[in-house]
Amino acid sequence: MGLMGPMKRILAQVKKELTQLWRDRLTLALAMVLPVLLLLLLSKATSLSVKDIPVVVQDLDKTPMSRLYQEAVGASLSFKLTALPPNVAPEQALLKNQARSALIIPPGFERDLRRGQNTEVQWLIDGTDANTANVMRGKAAAITQNFTIQIQPVAMQPAVRPQIRYWFNPGREDLKYFGPGVLAFGMAMFPPLLAALALSREGELKTILQVYVSSITAFEYLLGKIIAYTIVAWGEWICGMLVLFLVFGLRLAGDPTPLIVATFFYLLCNTCFGAMLGAAIPNQAAAIQATQLGGFLASFLLSGYIFPVENIPMPLRLLSNIVPMRYYLEVIRDAFLRGGGWAGVWNAPIALALLGGFFFWRAWAVMKDMQVKA
Amino acid sequence: MQFHGLFNSRLWSLFVKEFHQIRRNRRLVILLIIPPTLNIILFGLALNPTFENLQLGIVDYSRTLESRELISAFGEGLVFQTHAYYASTEEMGAAISRGELDAGLVVPNDFADKRARHETVDVQLLVDAVNANTATISGGYAARIIASFNQKIAQTERRRTQTVDPVTGAVSLVTNPAARAMVTPRLTLLYNPGLKSSWFITTGMIGLLLVLQGSVVSSASLVREKEIGTVEQLLMTPAGNSEIIIAKVAPIFLLLAFDIGLALIVARTVFGVPLRGSFILFFLAASLCVLCGIGLGMMIATFTRTQQQAQLMGFFTNPPLALLSGATTPIEAMPAWLQPITAINPVKHFAIISRGILLKGTGIKVLYPELLALAAIAFVMVSVSAWQFRKQLK
Predict the structure, then answer these.
(1) Per-residue pLDDT tens listing for chain B (394 residues)
(2) Among positive and negative, which fits the CA dihedral A26, A28, A29, A34?
(3) Element (H or E) spanning B51, and its range?
(4) Residues of chain B neighbouring A46 (CB-CB closer than 8 A)
(5) Which residue in A has a C-alpha nearest to residue B119's C-alpha?
(6) Of A335, B171, B224, B296, which sees the most CB atoms within 10 A?
(7) How many C-beta atoms surround the C-beta of residue B105 within 10 A?
(8) B143/A141 CB distance under 8 A
(9) Is the distance from CB of B252 to CB of B22 less than 8 angstroms?
(10) ipTM for the predicted complex
(11) Inter-chain residue contact A162 with B123, CB threshold 8 Å
(12) Backbone dihedral angles phi then psi of residue B261, each to the nearest 5 degrees
């Protein structure tokens, strides 16, 4: 019977928060619409696989063999070739951003090959965008190799031939990787924002003083707020999943339970994070800024959203361990692509629960502290 | 003439007032120094597409000298790190499913036999393609490793097929001469030979920072007047509306000009980003970028009544501004319908300009279309929002 009192007070708090949000239609609409808009706009925008990279070709040989090489380059979907007259310096095209790479086939290309002499083709690659340059370098090498094999007599086939299978994502589509990523990103931004605003508003308007004099404890008050905004976060998450399913046609690859369990802890953890900031900062504008720094910047940079976490240099990489999105990304990407189930991701919900617990404890400690001071 | 002088002095005193107000605002001054420095360093370090130590699993059904030679070829570079050996493909497949491996190599049991008969052997490479970019790059590296392995074999075999004619004693090659001919690509990386991604990221980030800083500072300073109600006091003064706006914006502009230098110094000292073109041109383009940011901030200020709302607007404008700019990912990789939209993003144009000036050393002859675009965006944003704001002042 002793539990009934606190339960009743927490539920009343949840109900009060949700009613308040329901009346504030503008904020409610923003909370539901903004994540979906972000998802629609950005999930296709973050992609690293460049197709049809513009390449200018300067063919100084002009023979059937040099044309065969160009065909081989053009046939791979990665490059789009444009001819460059012989009197123009190929670097000019790169300087003017007309091309990302210039291919120069030397005079005597066919003659040398017919005589059985090795020959070189020159690829000038714009290294400004390091990642795309790296991909271009690999493709140029692979195409040239295949070309060499193609012109060899049958007897001289290579000793070892790699057969590369791309698992889980044979088309190597970026959308399957970044779409769920944007959803995780949105959930790292909006739920903490709403929670932080709800708490710092009470601090700013001093309505928190009414709470202090009422019978509700800091723990119950905090838990009520967090439950209310976690429910809102679930609403946002379901909208986001609907977009991924219906608009982008993505499907879950296997057992959905790891995703659901991890989502439960992730949304809770993010709401606790926002509550912690909101409790500590009794100024709405400053609280928004802090959420932006912790939610947007830390998640964007340190969670592995664009490039894998393993690529971050060492002392900085340790910081990524306290970014919740880092764990959730592993789970949601696994759920959409690999379908590996619990075996690979069992530790993510635990880490999220621990982080969430820490944020809640900090928020609670700050609230109790302020209550004493007030 | 007298009127003109009076006009000038009134504008001047307003300007001085605003300047001191901003200067005394300790938080704002910190905001102008700490986030840009931190952002450039963090972005340059954290967004890193250099792939090293990709975890490689191995199933060696052959267990021969020949197969071990191939496996050791994979271990030689920095790219792949042998994670573990597995007894069967299924076992390794399970490890890939758990996300422990980035790629797996399967050497068939007839590897040595086929090598002895000089037949082509197919080895399987299983790549975890959950991350398409990592998969493409690791597949490319694996293909290059096998190619150089083949080249080595071809060279040793060529030596072996050199035979001595028993009658004449002359050394001759048995292989068909045409078969030896190889095309090798000579790959030259221009402008960024070390493929440092920090050079790409920081040159893009500078523009984003200037726009974001400009919008945050200007929207905060305009909305604060609205919020506290001091706008009415300003309206009481004999100063005209445009004077109020100019006096508000000019000091912000001067303070942010300081950020341009700061960003460039951080990029140079921390990442060694070169300055190969004209500094004056860079500064001019960056100033236009700051103006775009101020215009955006004023626009936000016209739509909102409180600082809180202004910041919430920022929450929605910033991610698209950052992600639809080509500052971190290539624009060419975006879907075709989205690419034209990036034309209205000042960060996009400035990224092209700053990469042109800093990395490629290009000048105004090449970059003028981007400069014009940036100037046009700045002009439209500042004038539309100034006009809107003036209407609201009345």
Answers:
(1) 445 555 567 777 777 777 777 777 776 677 777 777 887 888 878 777 777 788 899 999 989 988 898 999 888 878 888 989 999 999 998 888 887 888 999 999 988 888 888 888 889 888 888 887 888 888 888 888 888 888 788 777 665 555 555 555 554 444 444 345 667 777 777 888 777 888 888 898 899 889 988 888 888 778 877 777 776 776 677 767 777 777 778 888 888 888 899 889 999 998 889 999 999 999 999 999 999 999 998 888 888 877 777 777 777 788 788 888 888 888 888 888 888 889 999 999 999 999 999 998 888 888 999 999 999 999 999 888 888 877 776 6
(2) positive
(3) none
(4) 323, 329
(5) A159
(6) B296
(7) 24
(8) yes
(9) yes
(10) 0.75
(11) yes
(12) -60, -40
Set of chain B residues whose Cβ sits within 8 Å of the Cβ of A301 = 42-43, 46-47
**Local structure of A107: helix, strand or coil:** coil
Inter-chain contact B191–A285, Cβ cutoff 8 Å? no
Alpha-carbon distance A246 to A30, whole Å?
21
Which residue spans of chain A are classified as CATH 3.40.1710.10? Answer: 53-156
User: How far apart are the C-alpha atoms of A174 and B258, rounded to whole Å?
Assistant: 39
Contacts of B130 in chain A (CB under 8 A): 168-169, 177, 333-334, 337-338
Tokens of A83: 């001819």
- Chain B CB within 8 Å of residue A255 CB: no
- Residue ranges of the domains in chain B? 11-47+195-393, 54-150
| DSSP state string for B220-241 | HHHHHHHHHTHHHHHHHSS--H
- Strands annotated E in chain B: 54-60, 80-86, 103-107, 121-128, 162-164, 171-173, 183-190
Q: Which of B100, B121, B185 sits opposite A159 (nearest CB)?
A: B121
- Chain A partners of B189 at a C-beta cutoff of 8 Å? 125, 127, 133, 137
A64 touches chain B (CB under 8 A): no
Topology of the domain covering A53-156:
abc type-2 transporter like fold (3.40.1710)
Q: How many CB atoms lie within 10 A of CB B329?
A: 28
Whether A49 sits inside 8 A of B333 (CB atoms) is yes
Nearest neighbour of B132 by CB, restricted to A113, A122, A172: A172
Strand partners, B81: B55
- Tens of pLDDT along A53-109? 889 999 998 999 899 999 988 887 788 888 888 888 888 888 888 888 999 999 988
**Closest to B188 measured CA to CA, from A104, A21, A340, A3:** A104
Does pTM top 0.80 for this prediction?
no
Q: A138 to chain B: which residues are within 8 Å by CB?
A: 136-137, 139-141, 143-144
What is the spatial distance between Cα B25 and Cα A96, in angstroms, rounded to a whole number? 44
Which amino acid makes up residue A128? T
